[in-house]
């Protein structure tokens, strides 16, 4: 039988860098939980094995293969393994996911001689290549050169798409598909067994400002802590800062030393990586994203909004578009502006903050519902069908 013809299901192979915790990985997982399995047969190939989402995807009865690569170490044998996997699976569509996954997907597709359409997915914004590691900057420029040969290049943020076109990506095959949110999973919850203030021995009327982000320069925890100092020193209310995320804990000497130097040990609480994110987001009075670069369409902002928590965010990627005119948006790298925006939401009081929170959730429900009529899942499915049909008719 000719590849891809008269099959009841389209075989879609996803090639991704890895499956650790992250927004891009989460988006892929959400797509795989909802893709129409009567019409599509997904398989995942990871360059680097392991990660939270590897087991979760396997639990969906989806095969996950690893190329056995090590981070930062090129391995030509991995490309040979990818080619053999392509020949074994015989995909109808190859979907790259993130820069390195995109590049190796195109490489494997070219050398396997299967002549199936390759689609890329990019989950990053590039304000300036100088902000990126040298190796990543090289990869971005290389994929920009190759992008004209790709069937479709899907960006998770419109601002990110425009930035990539400006640095050389083809604009003819580019499209934006925003991430969506599970409004049932991320909704205000009242858990009588969970009281964040009580757990941290904080006053019941204390104001909680929170962040959920891995420790990385792009997340700019240093600026967040500077803003915390500016807020605490002249704010009448007792404000506490709840920082959650991988490597955001007491073992991180960079964070703990800065907190101690500014005298914030009693006000900044490092909780590390947590599984009960919905309960934490619901407990906050204000959610904040202090990222200085690199964000595309930050999942956690939409999740906080879906939990009815008003947001203060930096204007990186599509954060401004996500928040709309409901939350506060400031320029990155400005801790004084960040502190001013927090104090603005503190001063309006609890009733007005709750009103903003409800408006925030309504925005997510109407525009970014993963199970809604305009779900990103349906958009990806349509791209796969379109790409496959064009390749068959060619």
General description of the model:
- By secondary structure, the chain is an alpha/beta fold.
- The chain has helices at residues 23-34, 52-58, 76-89, 99-112, 134-146, 158-166, 196-199, 221-233, 253-261, 277-283, 299-306, 319-323, 335-347, 349-367, 376-393; strands at residues 10-16, 40-46, 64-66, 93-97, 118-122, 152-155, 174-176, 207-212, 239-244, 268-272, 286-289, 311-314, 328-330.
- Strand 6, helix 6 and strand 7 (174-176) form a beta-alpha-beta unit.
- The protein is globular, with a radius of gyration of 22 Å.
- Residues 1-6 have low confidence and may be disordered.
* Biggest β-sheet: strands ordered side by side in the sheet: 3-2-1-4-5-6-7
Query: Proportion of β residues?
Result: 15-25%
Distance between the termini: 17 Å
What portion of residues is helical?
A: 40-55%
What is the chain-wise order of helices and strands? EHEHEHEHEHEHEHEHEHEHEHEHEHHH
Structural class per helix/strand content? alpha/beta
User: Unreliable stretches, pLDDT < 50, 5 or more residues?
Assistant: 1-6
